[in-house]
Amino acid sequence: MTDESDLVATVTQQLAEARRASGITIEQLAERLDTAVQNVHRIEKGQNITLRTLERVARALGQKVRFRLVPDPQGPKTPPPGRKRRAT
Fold first, then answer.
1. Using N-to-C axis directions, what is the helix angle for 37-44 and 26-33, rounded to 10°?
2. At residue 4, what are phi and psi to the nearest 5 degrees?
């Protein structure tokens, strides 16, 4: 598992735990978000989640999103290859 997928798994696990702790079903959360139940399942599995979606879900659960960057004891790493930018 990569650091990125670890982060996504951690965040989506926290979302699912917050939903359950609030006593809210997936169906109720979908209704609050005005989206399909299938989309909430995807979110909780870490599929297709954006920061904007994370914020919307957190708000629907009465939560706030907080991020904190901390130094990596192993030092900086080369980022994984991503999409190439087009020349302008």
1. 110
2. -65, -45
On whether the CB atoms of residues 15 and 44 are closer than 8 A, the answer is: yes
Average pLDDT score, the chain: 88
Tell me if 69 is assigned to some domain: no
Per the CB < 8 A criterion, the answer to whether 61 and 29 are in contact is yes
* CATH code for position 36: 1.10.260
Q: At what angle do helices 3-21 and 37-44 cross, to 10 degrees?
A: 130
Condensed to tens digits (0 to 9), the pLDDT of residues 50-61 reads 999 999 999 999
State how many domains the chain has.
Answer: 1
